[in-house]
Amino acid sequence: EAQVTQNPRYLITVTGKKLTVTCSQNMNHEYMSWYRQDPGLGLRQIYYSMNVEVTDKGDVPEGYKVSRKEKRNFPLILESPSPNQTSLYFCASSPRTASNEKLFFGSGTQLSVL
Amino acid sequence: AQSVTQLGSHVSVSEGALVLLRCNYSSSVPPYLFWYVQYPNQGLQLLLKYTTGATLVKGINGFEAEFKKSETSFHLTKPSAHMSDAAEYFCAVSDSGNTGKLIFGQGTTLQVKP
Fold first, then answer.
1. Helices and strands of chain A, counted as H and E runs
2. Would you say A46 and A64 are in contact if contact means Cβ atoms under 8 Å apart?
3. pLDDT of residue B80
4. Taking CB atoms and an 8 Å limit, are A97 and B51 in contact across chains?
5. pLDDT in tens, B39-73
6. Cβ(A26)–Cβ(A72) under 8 Å?
7. For A40, how many CA atoms within 13 A lie in the half-sphere containing its CB?
8. Are the beta carbons of A35 and A89 closer than 8 angstroms?
9. Which residue of B has its CA nearest to A9?
């Protein structure tokens, strides 16, 4: 089944403890992206990647890192999480980087930073 | 810069009634417009998109939207609401820089009453 898989689904952590949220897609998509969803703000892009080893900042990149060493994986790294990073995170992918492409979303990771 | 405004964070309709979710956009270039739906505890799924051509776009589950350039609107409609339509709906516009980024509205939660 074609899908975007994120793990974990739920995560509670404490301020300053490094964490990684994994994202993997099995559709051979070139483009991958991370969004965070906050009430009243919709979804905002954190980082994106147009292909392997090509990543760039989105609208809210502060406090996050990403890597794209393989086409299928695009992990999101929080080196020193803070409470303002408590949010619902979504990974998404599309076949290519194009303005008219459909995004395929993972099921989300609910992160709470205490 | 592109932006999206969804009018009404919560909309409540009775089962069988018309569904109308409003979306207005701002774009410096001809826009690509999307509606996504998010069911509880799931990721976002594409309902429909407008790229070029016919301004009335039909999507899944009986939804449709009409692109009105003069009104900078892309409202989502469904003639008859079903209980299963209860979800959060997001309107989005593509970023003009061909980064693959979507700029989302704040979201509208649709409640369907029996």
1. 0, 11
2. yes
3. 97
4. no
5. 988 889 999 999 888 889 999 999 999 999 999 99
6. yes
7. 0
8. yes
9. B41
Q: Could you tell me which of B56, B107, B62, B100 has the C-alpha nearest to residue B81?
A: B62
Residue of B nearest to A6 (CA): B43
Strand locations in chain B, DSSP E? 3-7, 10-14, 19-26, 33-38, 44-50, 56-58, 64-68, 73-78, 87-94, 102-104, 108-113
Query: In terms of CA atoms, which chain A residue is nearest residue B30?
Result: A99
One-letter identity of residue B92? A
Interface of B with A in 62-81 (CB under 8 A): none
Contact criterion met (CB < 8 Å) for B102 and A44: no
Chain A contact probe: residue of B94, B96, B104, B109 with most A CBs at under 10 A:
B104
Paired with B63 in beta bridges are none
* Cβ contacts of A33 within 8 Å, gap of 6 or more: A45, A46, A47, A48, A49, A58, A74, A91, A92, A93, A103, B100, B101
